[in-house]
Amino acid sequence: MRRPMIAGNWKLNKTIAEACDLSTTLAQQLADVTAVDIIIAPVFTALSSVAATIKNSPVKLAGQNCYPVETGAFTGEVSPLMLKDAGCDYVIIGHSERRQLLDETDGFINQKMLKALEAGLKPILCVGETLQEREGNQILEVLTAQIKDGLVNLSADQMAEVVIAYEPVWAIGTGKTASDEQAQEAHSFIRGMLQGLFNQQVATQTRILYGGSVKPANVDGLMAMDDIDGALVGGASLKAEDFMRLVRFQAQ
Ligand code: 13P
């Protein structure tokens, strides 16, 4: 019912040549995949070169961030319009690294969501608690604020284009994955919130990805959970073999 999605967030890695090598391999070797949405998010400078290598393949392109203005005097920023122009269909918004290192707020993230949708991009909204918040029993409070404030002024129709990624900060790049049950619990909570904020249809149709040390060894268990519809992957998305195994997950 919900189409699975495996998305690779390449973060600040790979030159244009390295990015094109990897995207060319993925486009060739995943050409037969029809049942999974496959997304890769290279650095901005590699986007248009990578776009050329994945044309007519099931692999689609995402930006890792955007600025919520179309054009103007905003030195160093990239707009949703520019991402579309470079070949992107998706954009990652509100990644925890940006929330933490660059102090991005839910309000700013919400502006990006609205502008990305206006430009015809599908936003992947990242949410998730820190270790301190988990230990302080604040998970639900944190997720509630991030989801509610991140989705202000979005319509139920617009939600058809939105993907949510639950990425507990303590599991990112640490090798510590949330257990299948911990992830399922957070996903189910988020789905319940979507019902309250929008309606039953939005709750049932919205894809919720899990992110945080997803690798070939744990993907199958995670994907077998009822409310986990895919993965947003950092480290393991940089290696062709690993990423392809994730795309070919075997949920029981
Ligand atoms: P890792 O898969 O390296 O833990 O990164 C997860 C992530 O931040 C994806 O956006």
The CATH class label is Alpha Beta
Helix content: 40-55%
- In N-to-C order, the SSE pattern is EHEHEHEHHEHHEHHEHEH
* Major sheet strand order: 1-2-3-4-5-6-7-8
Describe the secondary-structure layout.
Layout: E1 5-9, H1 16-29, E2 37-41, H2 47-53, E3 59-63, H3 80-85, E4 90-93, H4 96-101, H5 106-118, E5 122-127, H6 131-135, H7 139-150, E6 163-166, H8 180-197, H9 200-205, E7 207-211, H10 216-223, E8 230-233, H11 240-247
Parallel strand pairs: 1-2, 1-8, 2-3, 3-4, 4-5, 5-6, 6-7, 7-8
Summarize the structure.
This protein is of the alpha/beta class and 252 residues long.
Q: Could you walk me through the main structural features you see in this protein, from its secondary elements to its overall organization?
A:
It is a single chain. This protein has one domain (5-247): Alpha-Beta Barrel (TIM Barrel), CATH 3.20.20.70. 41% of the residues lie in helices and 15% in strands. The chain has helices at 16-29, 47-53, 80-85, 96-101, 106-118, 131-135, 139-150, 180-197, 200-205, 216-223, 240-247; strands at 5-9, 37-41, 59-63, 90-93, 122-127, 163-166, 207-211, 230-233. Strands 1-2-3-4-5-6-7-8 form an eight-stranded parallel barrel, surrounded by seven helices. α1 (16-29) runs parallel beside α2 (47-53) and α7 crosses α8. The radius of gyration is 17 Å and the shape is globular. The chain starts with a strand and ends in a 5-residue tail after the last helix. The mean pLDDT is 97. The chain binds 1,3-dihydroxyacetonephosphate. 1,3-dihydroxyacetonephosphate is lined by residues 9, 95, 167, 172-173, 211-214, 232-236. 1,3-dihydroxyacetonephosphate binds at residues 9, 95, 167, 172-173, 211-214, 232-236.
